[in-house]
Each structure stands twice: as structure tokens, then as C-alpha cells.
Inverse folding.
């Protein structure tokens, strides 16, 4: 469908073809600051020189001649040509477009089937799933959904943190202080307790660090006992994480974590060596990155590889395996330096695709203004938090709609939706204050509010007993027009949201639509009204767009709640 800007540009071009290209005209068209000045405006200053005429006069003359069915009025206002969209025609076109395309409304094809890999979630085994990992999961999944909506192929990779010296310490702590039953009973808190205990003890007795290193060395060398314990820790951790992913409804194409790259690390080190990039520094091997960045540590004195080494191996592997067009890492802001280093090392290795690696950072989740951390002994388990919110959502539902069928399922969708939306309504770089109360409000900019608006639209259609495909009469009144404008902005909002890696743009778009729709609903009778058929078509279009927008954010939209 053509945009109104395009229609306007073409009309102007028919008149000014000798002096300006359509592209130039399109570039100059703006949105008037005041509603009374119409929907689109073209400033005539650029033409003054060529036409040797004052812009005011150019505007006045042109406005007399420009006629287009898509505009109900074209008039001059000082040096501007203002156009008023023909609401009757436009509203019909927008609604019919949505009804025809349904959930494909707002699809783009510029991705052209190219692959984007997403590094998202990526929690560390044997540790609680943190709020940071929640943000990565939710933001990463939404951007991946948006990429698919724009025609890309998304590959979701959960790069599990399952390797590193800390597992040597953990194995030691388990053998020394742990028991199988305790870990079985409540794996993550127990493993976390052992890990914390190790650090406390090591402060008193630094020789423990050597024990930890020794066990990690054994693990790296494939020692059967170390491997067995590590594999078991990994399995129980993934079981716990999977419960969270099930609740959030997120799926991954690959769970290849850091350990997967064990046997691929020598090749990286060799390649760096061959390319003359490795330098010795205090017994360790590093790549120097000039004055702006600290050197990238590749191998420790004792031969152990590092986080960066594994990320280099995984970047090379992903390029080989997926031949990505772009490779995104949705990881907290505090790892910015790490990703700058990785990119720089890859560039030094001669890989021009390093430019296609992008770190997509985000801020923190705060509780009472402070970072929510898993402090010693006080483990906040995300799964429990989610369960608690779902329970709250359920009691909300019981109060509002006690007869609802499948209450449990809806409560889950509302509770989880509330958490996801609360995150995604903020620009990702901003810190987010965690508040269950705010999340679950049915008013204001919340997940439940949008779900509720969708359910309301569905309920109108249910009562009507039909879902119209066509619009008989268009809409001209302001309340309906606000809904139409919000609907028509959706496709462009999707594009911007994807290009700016900013799911908050989708939230904004949906909230605006929901508000306009609820105002329209408060003001006009739908069932039994004169224009019932068209109004129902509008209601249906709203339901379709909210549902699709929420889907992109990773949120379900129940038909009833
Ligand atoms: N496991 C890491 C952490 O929790 C995040 C991994 C991010 N992805 C990556 N490719 N480095 O800090």
C-alpha cells in the first residue's frame, strides 16, 4: 500500500516536475506541528530561487492546482502547502489492508532471507538465573521476532556459561563440603551456596585457589571424575533454566555454550600465532589493541583459556556454521569493553565481517533504586518471582471475571506478559525499576492493559457474532481517525523498532493504538449503531494489530480475560 506521503509527493511532483525530483520532495515533506494545518506539509522555500517567486506566492498558486482524491483539501498557509488526508478513503484503505493481511500486516521483506544470529539469554550454570539474563532473554527474543517480521532468518543461540576456572572451584567445594542429596533437592541454591562458601574459605586460606585451579585443569584435560561432576551440574542447571524458558515461551536454535568451544580453541590460538598477533605479557598471551583498548587476554600463565578466547572461537564458528549477515550479542552494558575487544581482534585477524558483529547492550533492573543482585545467601530465584506474579494475576482475574474458562492458562499469560512488557516498554539502555504492583496494573502503560484491550475487542466481535472482512463506510470523526492513524503507523514502527534494536518502539505503537481504541469505544456505540459493519471491521483490525504486536514482544494475547 502506498503511503499518504507518497501520494502527496507524487501530486506535488506532477506540478513541480521541472524543478524537483520525487525523492527531493519526499525528503522535504513534513508533519505540521498543529493539527489545524493538516496532515502533511510541503515548504516552498527551495523553489523560490528557481522560480524567482516568493515562497508564499508559489504555495498559494500550487495549492489551487493540486488535486488528488486521497486528500480532502490542499491549501496554502504562508510558504507551506498543507494537505488534509481524505479520511473517508484513507480509513477504508487502512482497515481493509489490515483485514486482508491479518497477522502479516506490517511485514517487511528487506531482510531478504539473510541470517542474523542472536546471542541471547546465556546464563551461567550452577548460578541463579539473574535479572540481567532475563533482560537479555526478553529483549533478544523480541528483536529476533522483529527481524523475522522484516524478512530475516533469526538463529537464537543460548551461549550457556558452562566453562571457566570457577567450575574447578565448585567441584572442589562440592567434594569437600557438598552432598549429592542436597544438590538433588534444590540444585541451584545449593551449588550457589557451595560456590559462595569456597570464596569465604579461600579468603582465609588462599591455597584453596590452587585446588580450584587444579580441578579446572583436570576438567580441561578430560579427567573422568571432574567431567562427571561438571556434566551433572550442567544438567541440573539446564533443567532449572528450562522451567523459566517454558514460562517465558522462548525457544533456542542452539544451546552451544562456552564448553562447546573447548576443542576449537587451539585452532584460534594457532591462527593468532600464525598471524603474528600474540604477544607475551607477564607469562600470559595477549593481543595488543593499540592505545584505545586494553590488550585482549587469550591464554593465562597456566595455559588456561579465557572468556575472550571462547568468544573468538564461537564467533568464527558462527560465521562458518550460519554464514550470518549480522551477528548480534544481546548482553548487558557492563560487557561493552569485552565486545569491543572481540571485534577488534577479529578485525586484526583480517575478517571484514567483524564489522557485522554488534553488541546490543542494555541497562540494569533495579530494586528500590539499587542493582538487584544475588547477594550471599540471599538468592532470589526468578522462577519463584514469575510464579508469584502469575499467582497475583490469577487473583486479579478471579476478582474481575470469576467465570472465566482456563483461568490458569490466562493467569500465566497475563503474569508473564506483565513482566515482559514492563521490561520492553523502556528503552533498553535505561535502568528498569522492578515492581510487581506496577507490572500488573490494568490501567496505564502495562502488559495487562494491552491484553485487556485486545480481549475487549474480541468480546465485541463475539457479541456481534461475526468478524467483517470489508468496510462499507469510512471514518471521519476525530476519535475513529486517531485509531486509524495508530493502525497505519504500525508497519513503519516495526521497521524502526528493528533497525534501532528497540522493542520499546513496538510497545509505544501498541499503547497509542490501545488508548485511541479505548477512547473510541467510550465515545461511540458499536453494536446496533448505524455504521455497525464498518465499526466492527475497525474493532477487528485493532484486535489483529494488538495481537501481532504483542506476539512480536513475546507476549500472548488471550481472547478473554
Ligand atoms: N554468560 C555470560 C554472563 O552471564 C554472558 C554471555 C554473553 N555472550 C557472549 N557471547 N559472551 O555474563
Amino acid at each position: 500500500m502506498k503511503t499518504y506521503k507518497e501520494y502527496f509527493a507524487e501530486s506535488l511532483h506532477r506540478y513541480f516536475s521541472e524543478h524537483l525530483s520525487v525523492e527531493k520532495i519526499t525528503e522535504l515533506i513534513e508533519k505540521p506541528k498543529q493539527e489545524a494545518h493538516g496532515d502533511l506539509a510541503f515548504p516552498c522555500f527551495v523553489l523560490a530561487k528557481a522560480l524567482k517567486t516568493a515562497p508564499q506566492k508559489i504555495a498559494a498558486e500550487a495549492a489551487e492546482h493540486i488535486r488528488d482524491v486521497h486528500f480532502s483539501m490542499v491549501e496554502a498557509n504562508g510558504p507551506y502547502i498543507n494537505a488534509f488526508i481524505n479520511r473517508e478513503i484513507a480509513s477504508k484503505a487502512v482497515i481493509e489492508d489490515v483485514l486482508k493481511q491479518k497477522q502479516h500486516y506490517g511485514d517487511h521483506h528487506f531482510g531478504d532471507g539473510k541470517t542474523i544470529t542472536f546471542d541471547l539469554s546465556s546464563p551461567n550454570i550452577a548460578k541463579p538465573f539473574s535479572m540481567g539474563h532475563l533482560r537479555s532473554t526478553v529483549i533478544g527474543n523480541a528483536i529476533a521476532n522483529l527481524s523475522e517480521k522484516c524478512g530475516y532468518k533469526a538463529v537464537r543461540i543460548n551461549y550457556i556459561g558452562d566453562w571457566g576456572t570457577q567450575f574447578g572451584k565448585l567441584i572442589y567445594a562440592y567434594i569437600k563440603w557438598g552432598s549429592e542429596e542436597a544438590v538433588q533437592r534444590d540444585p541451584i541454591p545449593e551449588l550457589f551456596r557451595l560456590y559462595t562458601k569456597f570464596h569465604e574459605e579461600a579468603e582465609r586460606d588462599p591455597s584453596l585457589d590452587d585446588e580450584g585451579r587444579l580441578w579446572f585443569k583436570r576438567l580441561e584435560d578430560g579427567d573422568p571424575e571432574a567431567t562427571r561432576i561438571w556434566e551433572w551440574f550442567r544438567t541440573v542447571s539446564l533443567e532449572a533454566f528450562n522451567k523459566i524458558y517454558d514460562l517465558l515461551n522462548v525457544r533456542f536454535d542452539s544451546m552451544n555454550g562456552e564448553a562447546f568451544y573447548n576443542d576449537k580453541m587451539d585452532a584460534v590460538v594457532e591462527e593468532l600465532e600464525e598471524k603474528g598477533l600474540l604477544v607475551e605479557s607477564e607469562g600470559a598471551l595477549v593481543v595488543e589493541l593499540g592505545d584505545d583498548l586494553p590488550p585482549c587476554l587469550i591464554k593465562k600463565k597456566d595455559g588456561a583459556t579465557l572468556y575472550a578466547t571462547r568468544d573468538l572461537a564461537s564467533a568464527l564458528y558462527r560465521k562458518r556454521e550460519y554464514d550470518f549477515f549480522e551477528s548480534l550479542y544481546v548482553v548487558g552494558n557492563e560487557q561493552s569493553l569485552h565486545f569491543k575487544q572481540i571485534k577488534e581482534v577479529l578485525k586484526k585477524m583480517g575478517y571484514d565481517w567483524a564489522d557485522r558483529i554488534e553488541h546490543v547492550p542494555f541497562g540494569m533492573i533495579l530494586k528500590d533504586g539499587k542493582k538487584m543482585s544475588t547477594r550471599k545467601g540471599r538468592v532470589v530465584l526468578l522462577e519463584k518471582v514469575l510464579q508469584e506474579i502469575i499467582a497475583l494475576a490469577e487473583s486479579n482475574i478471579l476478582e474481575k471475571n470469576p467465570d472465566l474458562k482456563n483461568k490458569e492458562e490466562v493467569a500465566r499469560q497475563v503474569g508473564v506478559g506483565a513482566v515482559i512488557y514492563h521490561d520492553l516498554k523502556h528503552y533498553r539502555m535505561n535502568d528498569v525499576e522492578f515492581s510487581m504492583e506496577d507490572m500488573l496494573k490494568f490501567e496505564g502503560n502495562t502488559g495487562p492493559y494491552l491484553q485487556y484491550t485486545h480481549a475487549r475487542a474480541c468480546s465485541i466481535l463475539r457479541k456481534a457474532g461475526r468478524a467483517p472482512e470489508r468496510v462499507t463506510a469510512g471514518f471521519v470523526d476525530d476519535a475513529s481517525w486517531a485509531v486509524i492513524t495508530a493502525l497505519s503507523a504500525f508497519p513503519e514502527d516495526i521497521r524502526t523498532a528493528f533497525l534501532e534494536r528497540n522493542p520499546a518502539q513496538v510497545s509505544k505503537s501498541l499503547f497509542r493504538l490501545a488508548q485511541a481504541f479505548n477512547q473510541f469505544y467510550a465515545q461511540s456505540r458499536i453494536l446496533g449503531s448505524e455504521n455497525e459493519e464498518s465499526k466492527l471491521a475497525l474493532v477487528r483490525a485493532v484486535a489483529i494489530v494488538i495481537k501481532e504486536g504483542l506476539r512480536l514482544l513475546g507476549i500472548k494475547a488471550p481472547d478473554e480475560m
